[in-house]
Design goal:
- The structure is a single chain.
- The chain has helices at about 5-30, 35-105, 265-270, and strands at about 110-115, 125, 140, 145-155, 160-165, 170-175, 180-185, 190-195, 210, 225-230, 240-245, 255-260.
- By secondary structure, it is of the alpha+beta class.
- The strands form two sheets. Strands 1-2-5-4-3-12 form a six-stranded antiparallel beta barrel.
- The model is unreliable at about 260-275 (pLDDT under 50).
């Protein structure tokens, strides 16, 4: 029996491969022969579906890449739009604050809210200015909308703000038309109370309440809020007045600290437990 070695098989395959390559080259260089043209035509018919599928796949691949690029561009434009909206919002707020500063003629220090206690969102918050900006406890805190509170603690780089929604906060206020004076305090809920206003005082719902300037802490004329409800209290001697604060303490991001206040009056007023500031 004849035994065929693996080497002979390998040599045979190489020879066959070489012959096929040679035939292919001949077909390429003899493109004007009818047989070659016929063979080309047959091969085009046979391989056309495969070529079409490959072309379709390439088209889908290109389309997928294009879609990915478009999605990236849409995302980038969306982020840019969001940033522009934020810049516009901040710019609008800054213009309002600058206008407020010009109208009031106060020495103001701008600051940003950088921290809040989750359990006391509206009672206090931390700002990014402190001893480095020469801030002191007792200095008023405002926005362009109105009174926010005052500085209660100061360290290097930050300060704690006590707002009008702190139960220990007091400020002397007056109603703009009648000029009657009362003490603003918070008893809970979303509004404040204006106390010590006699029942005979000519005040009504919708009237504007501003700081009176008495006590030396808060400059006169800072907008505090608007009367939203009123009725005689239990004694029948005073009004029970509810004030909606002008400043939205839950969402503010930028504030101003009022520096143009006499420190001697600050310290003296802080020692008064019952009066407004």
């Amino acid at each position: 029996m004849e035994v065929v070695s693996k080497d002979s098989h390998s040599k045979r395959e190489i020879v066959i491969f070489g012959v096929l390559v040679g035939i292919s080259l001949i077909l390429i260089f003899m493109g004007d022969l009818r047989q070659v043209k016929a063979a080309r035509a047959v091969s085009m018919v046979v391989f056309y579906p495969f070529e079409k599928s490959i072309a379709h796949w390439k088209g889908l691949s290109n389309l997928s890449n294009e879609n990915a690029m478009l999605r990236q561009q849409v995302t980038e434009l969306s982020i840019e739009n969001q940033q522009l909206r934020q810049f516009e919002y901040e710019n609008k707020n800054l213009r309002k604050l600058v206008d407020f500063k010009k109208r009031k003629g106060l020495e103001l220090v701008p600051a940003e809210v950088i921290g809040r206690d989750p359990n006391r969102l509206t009672e206090s918050f931390v700002i990014d200015r402190g001893k480095d900006a020469q801030l002191r406890p007792g200095m008023p805190v405002v926005t362009a909308e109105g009174l926010v509170g005052k500085i209660s603690e100061v360290v290097e780089g930050t300060s704690l703000v006590q707002t009008i929604f702190d139960r220990d906060f007091r400020v002397s206020c007056l109603e703009m038309k009648s000029r009657v004076i009362g003490i603003l305090r918070w008893k809970g809920g979303s509004n404040c109370s204006l106390e010590n206003v006699p029942v005979q005082a000519q005040v009504s719902v919708g009237d504007t309440i501003v700081s009176s300037g008495l006590g030396g802490i808060f400059p006169k004329g800072l907008l505090v809020g608007v009367i939203v409800s009123m009725k005689p209290d239990n004694t029948g001697l005073f009004h029970d007045i509810e004030i909606a604060p002008a400043a939205d303490l839950s969402s503010m991001e930028e504030i101003f600290v009022v520096k143009s206040v006499r420190l001697e009056e600050m310290r003296r007023t802080q020692q008064r437990p019952m009066g407004g500031e």
